[in-house]
C-alpha cells in the first residue's frame, strides 16, 4: 500500500504538503497544478488513508467528491437591489472551494418552480427564511442541513444568524444618548417561504419587533413612525415621502437596510430636510457606497460573506466528521458612526 512519503517523492513535494492536502487542510496554499498532480499520483498508487481507532466515524476521503445543494429564498433582482444577499452566496462559494465541496445544485424558491428530489446530494445550505419542515420533503437522506439567516425556528438543525436584536438595541441606545426621543423605524417585510405549496408565513422582522418593544417600554412608541415596505431604494424613497407628507416627522430614523436608507435620504434632500440637523439616520448593512453618500451614512456593519462561510464550515463538519448535535452560530455586528447621525460625542453641538 502506498505511503504519503512515496506520493511526496513522486510528486516532488514535502510529506507535510501531501498530508495536509489529503486531509483537506483549508489553510494549505498550493497551486491548482500541484494539487492536481498530488491527487493523480495518490489515485495512481491507490493510496488509502490509515484510520486511527479513535477516528472510526471519519467519512472524509481525499479522492471522493462531495456535492451539496444551495437553496436561496431570494431572487436575482433581490441580489441586484441589495448586495447583502449576493455576499452570502459568494461567501458560500468561496468556502466550498476551501473545503473541496462542489455545489451540485443551486435553486431559488419560486412559486411556479417545482423542486427536484435532492437526495443525491450530500448536504444542503438553505439561505433565507424558509419553512424548516418543507426541506425534509425533498431531502430526507440525512440531517446534513444548515439554515442561514432564517427567522423561522430551526430546531434540530444547524443555524447561522446575525444578532440583529443586540444591534438594534445598540443603535437605539446611541440615539437616546445623543438626545433623541422621537425615533422612527423603516424596514422591509419578513416572509417565511414555503417550497411545498403551503401558504407563506408573515412574521415580525426582528429589527422592527425589537424597536417597537423598546419604545413601548420607554413610553415613546408612536405607530405612525413605523413604516414597512420593500428592501430597496424606491421603497425607502416612497415611505419617507409618505412620512414627510403626514407631518410630525421624528428627529431620528432607524432604517433596516442601506438600500432603503439611500432612497429615504434622497427624499429628505429633495425636500430640504437636513441630515442630521433635522433628522438623524442610522441604517443596517454598511455596504461599500454607504461611506460615500451625502452625508456619509451611519450604519451597522454586517458580515454576510461570513454567514455563508460559517454555513459551509458547519456543513463540512457534518459531512466529514459525522457531527449530529445541532449547532447555532450567531455572528456579531459593528456600529459605524458617520455624519448622517448626531452621535453622543457631537450631540452637544446640536442642543
TrEMBL record:
A GO molecular function annotation here is:
DNA binding
Q: Does the keyword ATP-binding apply?
A: no
Q: Does the keyword Transcription apply?
A: yes
Domain HTH lacI-type, first and last residues per copy: 2-60
What the entry lists under Pfam families is as follows: LacI, Peripla_BP_3
Signal peptide interval: none
Q: Which SMART domains match?
A: HTH_LACI (SM00354)
Keyword annotations from UniProtKB, A to Z: DNA-binding, Transcription, Transcription regulation
Protein name listed in UniProt: LacI family DNA-binding transcriptional regulator
Source lineage: Bacteria, Bacillati, Bacillota, Bacilli, Bacillales
Amino acid at each position: 500500500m502506498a505511503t504519503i512519503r512515496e506520493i511526496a517523492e513522486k510528486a516532488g513535494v514535502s510529506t507535510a504538503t501531501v498530508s495536509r492536502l489529503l486531509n483537506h487542510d483549508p489553510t494549505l496554499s498550493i497551486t491548482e497544478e500541484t494539487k492536481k498532480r498530488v491527487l493523480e499520483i495518490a489515485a495512481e498508487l491507490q493510496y488509502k488513508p490509515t484510520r486511527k481507532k479513535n477516528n472510526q466515524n471519519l467519512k472524509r476521503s481525499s479522492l471522493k467528491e462531495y456535492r451539496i445543494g444551495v437553496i436561496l429564498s431570494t431572487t436575482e433582482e433581490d441580489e441586484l437591489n441589495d448586495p447583502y444577499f449576493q455576499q452570502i452566496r459568494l461567501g458560500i462559494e468561496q468556502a466550498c472551494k476551501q473545503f473541496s465541496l462542489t455545489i451540485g445544485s443551486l435553486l431559488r424558491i419560486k412559486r411556479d418552480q417545482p423542486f427536484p428530489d435532492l437526495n443525491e446530494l450530500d448536504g444542503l445550505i438553505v439561505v433565507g427564511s424558509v419553512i424548516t419542515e418543507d426541506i425534509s420533503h425533498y431531502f430526507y437522506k440525512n440531517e446534513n442541513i444548515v439554515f442561514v439567516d432564517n427567522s423561522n425556528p430551526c430546531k434540530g438543525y444547524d443555524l447561522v444568524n446575525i444578532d440583529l436584536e443586540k444591534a438594534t438595541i445598540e443603535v437605539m441606545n446611541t440615539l437616546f444618548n445623543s438626545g433623541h426621543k422621537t425615533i422612527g423605524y423603516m424596514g422591509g417585510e419578513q416572509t417565511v417561504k414555503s417550497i411545498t405549496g403551503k401558504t407563506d408565513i408573515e412574521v415580525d422582522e426582528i429589527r422592527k419587533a425589537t424597536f417597537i418593544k423598546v419604545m413601548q417600554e420607554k413610553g415613546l412608541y408612536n405607530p405612525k413612525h413605523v413604516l414597512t415596505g420593500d428592501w430597496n431604494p424606491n421603497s425607502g424613497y416612497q415611505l419617507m415621502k409618505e412620512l414627510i407628507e403626514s407631518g410630525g416627522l421624528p428627529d431620528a430614523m432607524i432604517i433596516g437596510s442601506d438600500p432603503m436608507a439611500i432612497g429615504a435620504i434622497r427624499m429628505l434632500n429633495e425636500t430640504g430636510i437636513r441630515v442630521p440637523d433635522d433628522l438623524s439616520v442610522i441604517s443596517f448593512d454598511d455596504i461599500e457606497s454607504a461611506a460615500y453618500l451625502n452625508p456619509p451614512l451611519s450604519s451597522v456593519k454586517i458580515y454576510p460573506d461570513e454567514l455563508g462561510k460559517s454555513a459551509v464550515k458547519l456543513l463540512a463538519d457534518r459531512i466529514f466528521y459525522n457531527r449530529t448535535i445541532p449547532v447555532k452560530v450567531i455572528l456579531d455586528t459593528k456600529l459605524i458612526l458617520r455624519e448622517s447621525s448626531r452621535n453622543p460625542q457631537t450631540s452637544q453641538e446640536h442642543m
